[in-house]
Amino acid sequence: MAAPLMEKLSESLGSPEPAVRLILSVLVGYPCALLYRRFFFHQAPTVIHLYHAISGLSLAAFNFGTQLYHSALCVLVQFLMMRLMGRTITTVLASFMFQMAYLLSGYYYTATEEYDIKWTMPQCVLALKLIGLSFDYYDGGQEPSKLNEEQKRSALAKVPSLLEVIGFSYFYGGFLVGPQFTLRSYQRLVKGELTDCPGQPPNSVIPAMKRFSLGLLCLVIYAIFSPHYPDSYYLTDEYDAQPFWYRCVFILLWAKVILYKYVSCWVIAEGVCILSGLGYNGLGQNGEYQWDACANMKVWTFETTPLFTGTIASFNINTNAWVARHVFKRLKFLGNKLLSQVTALAFLAIWHGTHSGYLLCFSMEFIIVNVERQAQALVRDSPLLTRLANSSFYPLIYLVQQFIHWLFMGYPLVPFCLFTYDKWLRVYSSIYFCGHIFFFTLYLGIPYLRKVLVPRKERSEKKED
């Protein structure tokens, strides 16, 4: 009965049925969180784990049918590895290899030339969650003096039960689209510790509704404008026939619209986490309670920053934090920050999928971020550029910055969304690889600009540092 109903609903909305099922499932998280607050907050941990497991598995079945066995198998294997192999580096490596191999196999066998909502979508979220779980279990057996503060907060004192791992994995606020959170945070939620009212459900309804409203606004913006900026337009003769400036502006506007697809889902899901209490983050510096522990987006920063690094830092925050914690920082033994950064970005590219577009996207991110840092250092060290940046011309500079920023934010998103070599190469050829030329020119030119714009004294001090 549900299938014909969903078909009619998707037809009336003009959206694919899997997308309608997904957004409905994210929204269902709100009544699930309300039920938890009303009936399960004071229950025993076993009852709460059961509730989270049943509700999450139901959402998985609603979206992917019998294919939910993929996630269930990975959860079971992860639990058995921790139980049978113990707190060893072998457990961590085995978990990493198994979860990533299973995910990549799923990508390979279900791959198409377009973005599809299928079981691999929540699987990529789950893979990080389970790999992180093995790291946290391993850290729990280490000497506290060997761990940083972040690792101490996440480390597990003992192996969790199977029911606990299932509840953690299928928690309705994070199973489908994230955010990432640790088992320790989930354990605190189950114990009723994540609240501003000890012993009572948190006063988080209003903060949750604020995120829900913002997420809904982003979803409406995406629904209105996305039909006017489809990915398929890039591959038409009409796009090729447009003037160069039009093709570039289309990329800019398309990028702004396409990202709202992710922003809306993450912000709505964050509201679910806040409502349940998982988003509780203690008292802030101003003495007010914070609810941003599961924030995956800083929407205001995302919209207003003129910096590439600012956009990256405000987008998919918890996934980036996971990669920083479990990949970048754990590669400290390499003794090379740049190599650690390259490895972390390569991991992100592979985690997203097997298409060449992902690798190109994250390689461009590496180039753009490093060129921007060099440019910021140049402005900071040059008295002339510093005065100009702080002058009355700044509003004009800001507008130019934003145009360049969003044009070249859209540039690496083209291969990210078009996936395959033949498609993204056609688009890049039509705009003459302007992004590559722009950033490689800056990369080669900034050292010469430093010689002209930075006083000799400043340059020598920089070398000594």
From TrEMBL:
UniProt-listed GO biological process terms: lipid modification; phosphatidylcholine biosynthetic process
Subcellular location: Endoplasmic reticulum membrane
Pfam families linked to this entry: MBOAT (PF03062)
Pathway: Phospholipid metabolism; Lipid metabolism; phospholipid metabolism
UniProt topology in membrane: Multi-pass membrane protein
Domain of life: Eukaryota
Bilayer-spanning residue ranges: 20-36, 48-69, 89-109, 212-229, 244-263, 334-351, 396-421, 427-449
The name this protein goes by in its record: Lysophospholipid acyltransferase 5
Organism: Oncorhynchus tshawytscha (Chinook salmon)
Organism lineage: Eukaryota, Metazoa, Chordata, Craniata, Vertebrata
